[in-house]
Amino acid sequence: MRPIESHIVPPGTARERLSDYAHRVFQSVPSRKGMKKAIKAGAIFVDGRPGHTGHWVLPGQRIELMPPAQAPPKALALPLEVLYEDTHLALINKPAGLPTSGNRYRTV
What we know:
This protein has helices spanning 18-25, 32-40, and strands at residues 5-8, 16-17, 44-46, 49-50, 56-57, 62-65, 81-85, 90-93. It is an alpha+beta fold.
């Protein structure tokens, strides 16, 4: 997985907690609370390892913001009659009242 943003702490940087420093550096996380949640969720890495809110940032360290992990969508077992199927096309007999778009869960 590639980082969204990456930053190397410059020399002469004062000692500071990771949550505070990363909040100033990464503009894509707008709040301190959001940054703490990102760190606890494992989205912030320091020198290739998951960061912790109590970690002290040191000059020369590489801090990376990874994309949030997304859970796969829930699959609903729908009894559908398959009329035809090949590698490029599928024809199903959709029951009346079952939406085909606009709904993330109960849809074909």
